[in-house]
Amino acid sequence: MPMPRNRYWRSLGRFWATSLAAELEYQANMAIELLAVVGNLAGSLFVLALLYGRSSRLGGWSWDEALVVLGVYTLLDGLTSAVLQPNLSKIVSHVQNGTLDFVLLKPIDSQFWISTRSFSPWGLPGLVAGAGLILWAANQAGASWQASHVALTALLLASSAVILYSLWFLLAALSIWFVKVWNATEVLRYVLVAGRYPVSAYPVGLRTLFTLVLPVAFLTTVPAEAILGRVSASWALASLGVAAAALGLSRWFWQYALRYYTSASS
Amino acid sequence: MPIVSVDELSRTYRVADRQPGLRGSVQHLLRRRHRDVVAVQGVSFAVEPGEIVGFLGPNGAGKTTTLKMLTGLIHPSSGSVQVAGWVPARRQPRFLEQITLVMGNKQQLIWDLPPLDSFRVNAAVYGIDDSEAKRRIHELADMLELGDELTRPVRKLSLGQRMKAELLAALLHRPAVLFLDEPTLGLDVNAQARVRDFLADYNRRYGATVLLTSHYMGDITALCPRVLLIHQGRLFYDGSLEELTTSLAPQREVRLELRHLANAEEFQGYGELESLQGHQVRLLIPREQLTQQVGELLSRFDVLDLEVSDPPVEELIGRLFRQGSVA
User: Fold this and answer.
1) Contacts of B242 (CB under 8 A, 6+ apart)
2) Which of B239, B265, B293 delimits the end of a domain?
3) In angstroms, what CA-CA distances link B64 with B100, B104, B311, B318?
4) In chain B, count of helices (H) and strands (E)?
5) What are the helix and strand counts (H, E) for chain A?
6) What percentage of chain B exceeds 90 in pLDDT?
7) What's the pLDDT score for residue A179?
8) Direct distance between the N- and C-terminal alpha carbons of chain B, in angstroms, rounded to an integer
9) Which of A81, B138, B235, B247 has the lowest CB atom count within 10 Å?
10) What is the dihedral sign for C-alpha A136, A138, A141, A144?
């Protein structure tokens, strides 16, 4: 008898296969999403080009290096469209319709279910464009392709994805109390737009805000520096620490929220 | 050893006390006032493995709250619950694998996809391997008389078909205890009967314990030898439906149409004479003497027509809830 595959991996496979099957009924979305990604990217490139029109460096970042940051941003935005947004926006309706009950009665971690149940293929263009831009710009900027360097990059990208996820999850979980909290996550998405450009391109005040209050710096700038091979050990460690803390906080908060949850109908 | 045991279970909700209108909303925003509402109070009972037990009670009686405490969705305010040896509120995976909850007003099937896709998701979540899942789907689909409905998108199914598919999805992991909240809600008479037959069949075949709530008396009379009556959060009857009707209506009404006129005295010893009008006689006879006395009546009088009637259970229970006690 073959080893039973891990329940979580197998569930994840089924989750995403079924959401793809359901999404593919609406093919027009794909074209629209592609246009949106291209439009967004073009807009960001245009702004960057304007900024670089006056000087060849911005806050110590060359054009190619700044493109790496933009690539990381695009990648994270793709992740948001593919996984975060389609899943976390549903917590509200789960609470309103009482279908959270079904989730809570499954013998699988409820935060896992809530966070991974859906996968939207419409985030794929962003993921591909982001990855492509990173590879191309990093190559232009002369990044190294050593295994240890690539591993560190992957680790810090994962850590920024975890930070982003945890922030979304914390805000979305508030809907256990405040059903209309969904707007707050939209605000978060717009704040993260600031991560398109290197943090050092911003005035000192904003820079502090983006590092200490909103971890925008950890989301895009730190992994971009890792890609360019110039991240300091302290920043790398700080990023991992913030990711671990944010994930831990999101898990704690979910358990806390569930204790308050008594479903929509009594 | 009971599979479900509930001891002095209570649940209080804190609800916002809010006046209607904009004024009320503003007041509420500035100074929130809350009121405690007791949904369930001091409920105790035990269920043996394989039993089918019905929860009866008007809307808001506390049936659903009790069911949710039994499944671990709501934490009790006080008292204790054990289901299959576990404390439900902890919702440990091993516990969750042994129970299921079906709600007539909520669905877990994926709307845009055929039920089979939802079953496959559940199989993975419950760690059932593919060949075993296939076997179980086949078996349950047979019992539920589901065929090509399983490959049609859920949104294209009728309510009855959808409910049957919901049941299949909820039973794929072979739970030992089934909690059903209004499983026949909104179904037509035929579909209701199908669901009932299936539940009885499932209970016989797998020895599963079933606890269900329903507004339809038909569900309860057809399925549940034992009922729990809940009213205003309190349990005030636990026993068989038959005993309940006997205690509520200990006598049955017997109407006779006689060929010849008779005197009132002639009916002495045959229960209680309610009325005697010409050829029409109405008697109230205690249940336990019914057959014997009807037999005697038939042999003693020239009876043209005989009718034995019982007040409908709904009516009896409705009266009971208005009274507020069994006595």
Assistant:
1) none
2) B239
3) 14, 12, 28, 19
4) 11, 13
5) 14, 2
6) 51
7) 67
8) 30
9) B138
10) negative
Chain segment B165-193, per-residue pLDDT in tens = 999 999 999 999 999 999 998 888 899 99
CB count within 10 Å of CB A196 equals: 23
Widest Cα–Cα separation across chain B: 80
Highest mean pLDDT among A89-93, A252-256, B211-215: A252-256
Q: Select the residue of B108, B118, B126 nearest A99 (Cβ to Cβ).
A: B108
Q: What is the DSSP letter of B86?
A: B
Residue type, B38: V
Of A4, A22, A104, the CB nearest to B110: A22
pLDDT tens for residues B30-51?
A: 777 778 888 899 999 999 999 9
Residue B322 within any structural domain of the chain: no
Q: Is residue B326 part of a domain?
A: no
On whether both B187 and B265 belong to a single domain, the answer is no
Lowest mean pLDDT across A112-121, A228-237, B96-105, B263-272? B263-272
Binary contact (A107, B125; C-beta < 8 A): yes
Determine the structural domain holding residue B148 and report its residue range.
Answer: 4-239
A199 alpha carbon, distance to own chain's centre: 17
Answer whether residue A263 shows pLDDT above 60.
Answer: no
Residue B312 confidence class, pLDDT cut points 50, 70, 90: low
A265 closest CB neighbour out of B64, B110, B124:
B64
> Per-residue pLDDT tens for B289-308?
888 989 998 888 889 999 88
Total domains, chain B: 2
Which residue, among A134, A157, A135, A129, has the nearest Cα to A42 in the 3D structure? A129
Torsion of CA A26, A28, A29, A35, to 10 degrees: 170
Measure CA B272 to chain center.
35
Q: Which residues of B touch A15 (CB under 8 A)?
A: 121
Query: Which residue of B64, B70, B106 is the best one to mutate when testing the A interface, meaning the one whose CB has the most A CBs within 10 A?
Result: B106
Sheet holding B251-258, edge to edge: B272-277, B280-286, B251-258, B303-309
Least confident of A192-201, A222-231, B137-146, B192-201: A192-201
The 10 Å Cβ neighbour count of residue B260 is: 8
**Rounded-to-integer distance, Cα B202 and Cα B102, Å:** 14
> A107-120 pLDDT, tens per residue?
999 999 999 999 98
**Per the CB < 8 Å rule, is B64 touching A10?**
no
- Domain shared by B212 and B294, yes or no: no
Domain boundary among B194, B213, B239: B239
Query: Which residue from B minimizes the CA distance to A99?
Result: B106
Put simply, the answer to whether B118 touches A18 (Cβ < 8 Å) is: yes
Best probe of the B interface among A94, A97, A102, A260, by most B CBs < 10 A, is A102
CA pair distance B127, A22, nearest whole angstrom: 23
In degrees and rounded to multiples of 5, residue B47 shows phi and psi of -125, 130
Q: Do the Cβ atoms of A266 and B96 come within 8 Å?
A: no
Band of the pLDDT at A264, cuts 50, 70, 90? very low
* Alpha-carbon gap: B76 to the closest alpha carbon of chain A (Å): 11
Chain B residues within an 8 Å CB radius of A102: 101, 106, 108
